[in-house]
Write a structure and sequence with these properties.
Blueprint: E1 10-11, E2 19-23, H1 29-38, H2 40-43, H3 48-57, E3 60-65, E4 103-110, E5 119-127, H4 136-146, E6 154-160, H5 165-171, E7 175-181, E8 194-201, E9 216-217, E10 226-230, E11 282-285, E12 292-295, E13 302-303, H6 312-325, H7 338-357, E14 369-370, H8 392-397
Parallel strand pairs: 1-14, 5-6
Antiparallel strand pairs: 2-3, 3-4, 4-5, 6-8, 7-8, 7-10, 9-10, 11-12, 12-13
């Protein structure tokens, strides 16, 4: 676990810039894609249909400025020259009404992860470099917590071990619980990359919701199954953590996916001596019969020097045979050993049982800032008598 332990986290400061956080729409795709491509090594890549699908589902939040931080003149407008008299105060420029807002950050998340109603997930969180350290990302997280379902009590995310974003999640009160292996040869030292699983209780005053992490993850950019292991007490998330290396399915029978060469490729390249053209003649294919015709001299004067007919149907048939003989290359999906996955699941269950039962003895990081969701405990649910449910009209009137 981390050494960062704060007994009294401070409240999240107000935004230092004029930022509005709202639900994204399809017009925000260009801004989201621009930020994603700018940080593709940290975020990965989501294609356009995936991003637009998440926008349609309401899983994307956008942080944008109010248009008062940068003034861009219209196209073709001459530069503004201002001369201030001696002793005049500094010039304050306010853009005209209707100035377009600038998207400076976004968050892609969901309040349901791994079919668990109490657990939400953050897939991507990105802020423009010019607007960092201004609590834009923290307010995006807070807005995501506030809009989550009532039963969502935890939020989690996977973050590569070599990224500075781990410091951010640690300061926001997330706890490093588990880790998994990432892409090979992409780690900080050229080895396998490690992903840290962070989790946080988002309700104010919640000390009883048990932590949880998946024992195995599938899919993703790697398109593989990866075993998740717990970070044991005494271990740090930045330590050299051992990673399980999985074998590829079908590695022994690797000849199954070898492409076959076309049959009789050399024989089809042979030419008949009668097909040779006289110097100065131009070969022109004739569409109706498929014969080879030569043309020279005045337009319209032509003679046939070859009696060999090349049928279009034969060429089409040869192409079809090549397509049939060429097998489709299948993906080799890496799957974890079923016995190993079962042992990892049992290890996860035993560890979490002891971890959640002895949280008072563990020095869990509390974070630097108090980033939680305030729950109104004054709300009371009035029970409806069963007799009132006989007539729907009475229920609607009530």
């Amino acid at each position: 676990m981390s050494d960062l332990v704060t007994s009294c986290p401070v409240a999240l400061p107000a935004l230092k810039v004029d930022i509005t956080i709202r639900r994204a729409n399809l017009d925000d795709f260009k801004a989201i894609d621009r930020l994603q491509k700018m940080h593709n090594k940290q975020l990965g890549f989501l294609n356009r249909p995936t991003i637009e699908g998440k926008i349609s589902l309401g899983h994307v939040l956008v942080a944008e400025t109010g248009g008062r931080h940068s003034v861009t003149p219209a196209a073709g407008t001459a530069a503004l020259q201002v001369t201030l008299a001696a002793g005049t105060a500094a010039l304050q420029v306010t853009p005209a009404a209707g100035t377009a807002a600038l998207q400076v950050g976004y968050l892609i998340g969901n309040d349901r992860y791994k079919h668990r109603d109490e657990l939400g997930v953050i897939f991507q969180l990105c802020v423009d470099p010019n607007y960092r350290r201004l609590f834009v990302a923290a307010n995006l997280l807070k807005a995501q917590f506030e809009r989550s379902a009532w039963g969502c009590k935890l939020y989690c995310c996977w973050c590569a071990q070599d990224l500075p974003a781990n410091k951010f999640y640690e300061s926001m009160g997330f706890v490093p619980i588990a880790y998994r292996g990432g892409a090979e040869k992409k780690g900080p030292t050229g080895g396998s990359r490690v992903h840290i699983f962070w989790q946080k209780r988002i309700r104010s005053g919640d000390v009883s919701t048990p932590y949880w992490f998946p024992s195995e993850t599938t899919g993703g950019l790697m398109d593989a199954s990866r075993i998740a292991l717990p970070i044991l007490p005494g271990m740090k998330w930045w330590d050299d953590l051992p990673v399980l290396v999985q074998e590829s399915a079908g590695e022994a029978s690797g000849d199954e996916h070898v492409l076959k060469l076309p049959v009789e490729k050399k024989e089809r390249k042979k030419k008949v001596s009668g097909d040779k053209l006289v110097p100065g003649m131009k070969a022109v294919p004739q569409a109706p019969t498929g014969r080879r015709v030569v043309q020279f001299g005045r337009p319209g004067a032509s003679c046939v020097v070859s009696s060999v007919a090349v049928r279009v149907e034969e060429k089409v048939q040869e192409k079809v045979e090549q397509m049939v003989e060429k097998p489709v290359k299948q993906k080799r999906i890496k799957k974890a050993n079923p016995e190993l996955a079962a042992r990892a699941r049992e290890l996860r269950d035993k560890y979490l049982e002891q971890f959640n039962a002895n949280q008072d003895r563990l020095a869990l990081p509390a974070g630097k800032y108090e980033l939680v969701r305030e729950i109104d405990t004054s709300v009371r649910v009035q029970m409806i008598d069963a007799t009132q449910l006989i007539e729907p009209k009475q229920l609607i009137a009530a």
